[in-house]
Structures are given as C-alpha cells and as structure tokens.
User: Fold this.
Amino acid sequence: MSPRIIGDDLEAKLDWRALGEAFAAGHLLPRAEITDSFLYRGDDTLLSRAAWIDGLGVLVKSATIFPGNTAQGKPAIGGSVSLFNDGDGTLDAILDFHLVTKWKTAGDSAFAASRLARRESRNILIVGAGTVGRNLHAAYSAYFPEAEFTIWNRSPTGAARFAEDCPGTRVAPDLAEAVSRADIITSATMTTEPLIQGDWLRAGQHLDLIGAYRPDMREADDTALTRARIFVDSRETTIGHIGELKDPIARGVISEADVVADYYDFSDGRFARRSADEITLFKNGGGAHLDLMTSAYILSQASGSP
Assistant:
C-alpha cells in the first residue's frame, strides 16, 4: 500500500486540546527512544531527529534553519517528516513538515501551560510576532478561551501586522511593562541574548520559552531561571542541547536537579503547579517523540479514527 501524503488541507480536522490528549496518552506508552543530530554552518542549522515509541510508530524528521533566507523573501525553515509503521516498518505517511511543526510546537507549549499556569490566567503576552507567535495565539486560545492577548516584537511594524491578523490583540510598546502585567508570557524569538529579565517577573506567572534551539541561544536571563520552578517537555532534548538550560547549568547558576519534571512525570504528579504564588517556567525543546505523537494524531484524523 502506498503511504498517505498528508498536507495542510487536513488542518480543519485538527483540534489543539485533542492533540494535548494525544501527548498525555503518548507519554503513558513505553519511553521513546530518541536520537538527535545537529550540523551547523555559521548561523545555519541542519537538525535531524528520529523517534521510536513501541505501540505508536517510528518517525524521522529533518529540518533546515537558514535565518538569512528571510532577507531574500524565502522561508527560513524547511524540512520533511516520514512516519513508519511500528509493526512492520512500512512507510505509513509522508506529512507536510510545516503542518507537523506548527501543531507540535504551539501545541506543546499550550498543553504545558494548561498544566502549569494558573487556571484563571487571562492576560497572555506573546513575545515575537513571527509565524510561531501566530500559532501560539491559536493554541493558547483553545485552552484559555477568555484570555486577552498582547504582542511585543522588536519591530513595531511586525507587532502591528500581528495585531491585524489576530483581532483583539493589543500591541505592547514596552517589554518590561508587558511582562510585569501578564499572567502568561510565551516567547518565540531567534535571540541569542536574553530578552526577558527575571527582575520583571511577579508571583504567580507562567513563563513559556520556545525560541532557543541551539547551545548559543537564550531568551530569559539567569535571574528568571533561579526565581522559577523549571519544567521541560523532555530532559533528553533540552538539558544537554539548548543554551537556555545548558549554559546556566555549565556555569553553576542552576543544576540538572533544578529541572523539576518533564512529560514522563505526569503519572506521579510532579508536572504540576504547587501554589498560586510560584513562578513556573517551561522550556519547549520539542523532540522527535513529540513530532511522532503529533504525526500519529494527524494520521488518525486523516483516517477518520478517534
């Protein structure tokens, strides 16, 4: 049988909260085997990820990140996703890379916030007006339907376009003030130097960090990390790979033990907010196992399965 070719025309059948349920179910299966490889050429990156989850499937995803493409009017990110059958290894589906990445990345962060942010959170600040920021607006809206959104972007023009595309979103002229007012801060930028300062944070907030994916990238400073309880989607794909955690751990600012929990700790209750006053911080590192769970969910919708 030929593999399914799945494009973004399937998107109308997808649901953010149902994807979150797929994440929860996927982490009750045997622990994923994951391999990551990174190749760098200056600012350019080739990221290849593979995952195998017994009972779910096998996935290979390759991504190219060429930041300089944007100046030429080309996409900065490209790639491919292949989903293989867990039983016999046949190729079940070739999925649109951008569809999988969109739903995995934004769905990952919004799902974590549903577990870590205060339920009464109403003011959500999005830092970064790119494509991921727009996806975050959609995903967070599904989990926090009564929330009001604010956008901050280095370029005011980009922030204004975002507000036009996402009606009702307020543009924040000052990042520090916007952070201090927010209940949830979700950041998706390409910065290498921290934008978000821990001194701006207040009790009860949830900070969601998405943008950093290389060892030389940070979105939040050391103070933010030391003031918060730290959670990740996967210890395996964050602690040793991404500057957000790798850098402060190497300098002794925090230790690996300061990472409270990842998604495999759902069953014992560790992946949870303890009190209304604590600051929670989530590092979204992605990982091929989450791409696999997302792809399996998408394929189930394409096949009409529950």
Remarks:
- The radius of gyration is 18 Å.
- The longest helix spans residues 97-116.
- The CA atoms of residues 194 and 219 lie 4 Å apart.
- The first strand starts at residue 4 and ends at 6.
